[in-house]
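Example 3.2
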Amino acid sequence: MNIHSSQFSCSKSFEDFPCSHRQWRHAGHCRFVHGYSRSFTFWFIAKELDVNGFVVDFSRLKPLEKKLKEQFDHTFLVNKDDPLLNYWKELNDLEALNLRIMDNVGMEFSSKVIWQWANEYLKEKDKGRTCCWKTESKENKSNSASYENLPTWY
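Structure, written as tokens:
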């Protein structure tokens, strides 16, 4: 990854998305359903500023915030290979939980997923002027994970 110092940068955080998950493979307590109020930070860069002098106009990130809410706000995240998946689906059908099935519910993979979402949005909106080069997913003040990469089109 090569981020030149001559590029402009900014960051935006979205906080407090209460959700639960479990890491069914974990030998310890993480195998049990537990929850956090997840928060997410995005780091953006731009080759040039927009007409307002911004890297990214934060007011235009509503579609990204909406996607975060749909995935992480009052939801239960489960790995697609969870051996209890049929039970979770049944509980979802009974409206006891709001199920989201993911390849991996961990914070590391969540960081990659939201990085992809941000770059899909920015590629369409800014036509390559900007990109998201880093994301961070926090489950609380003490624990976080990040993903860093430049999209191939930037």
